[in-house]
Amino acid sequence: MDRRHFILSTAAAGCATAWAQSPRPPAIVVVGDSLSAEYGLARGSGWVALLQKKLRQEGRPERVVNASISGDTTAGGRARLPALLRQHQPAVVVIELGGNDALRGLPLESTAANLSWMTEAAQQAGARVLLVGMQVPPNYGADYTRRFANVFADVARKYRTALVPFLLQGVADGDDPRAPFQADGIHPKAEAHPRMLGNVWPVLKGLLK
Questions:
Q1: pLDDT tens digits, residue range 10-64?
Q2: Which one of the listed residues 34, 36, 72, 193 is annotated catalytic?
Q3: Are 127 and 91 in contact (CB under 8 A)?
């Protein structure tokens, strides 16, 4: 091997090593349901995609991993979380689950237990946690409505983690509550998602180093 070829080969090897050793940008993993999985929307128009754009606009390095699945419950999120933690080693885990638990009439105790398990697992993996709360319509009854909302607050308080009390604040409680929603009356239209991000971003920003 001549001297010039040796220098080029050494330089290439050094670049490859530096590339392999360069740290990945910190990950924000969103574990959610259809409200975060862009159900019924064009790709890139949901609040999670808007979050990635917001980070880029602010010159922040974090990458967003949207691990949301339409129809998912807290039990589903609990089953999927360990693999997500191993794969992405996130700096922040956003948990947006629980709405489908209520729709299926699952016990509040199981919802609380699953959210607690996920929160503790994420914290033990070194991630900061943001719980994104949900509320149910008044027709569920005043007592159930109150207890369901309290699940998120109670878990956040127990584990001293960040909380967005209601993802759909300013969307589901407007003058015309059906206007921001798709035909099913459950999933917000694309124009509602900037407001949803607006509910999440001020709390999430406080978790980013």
A1: 444 444 444 445 578 999 999 999 999 999 999 999 999 999 999 999 999 999 9
A2: 34
A3: yes
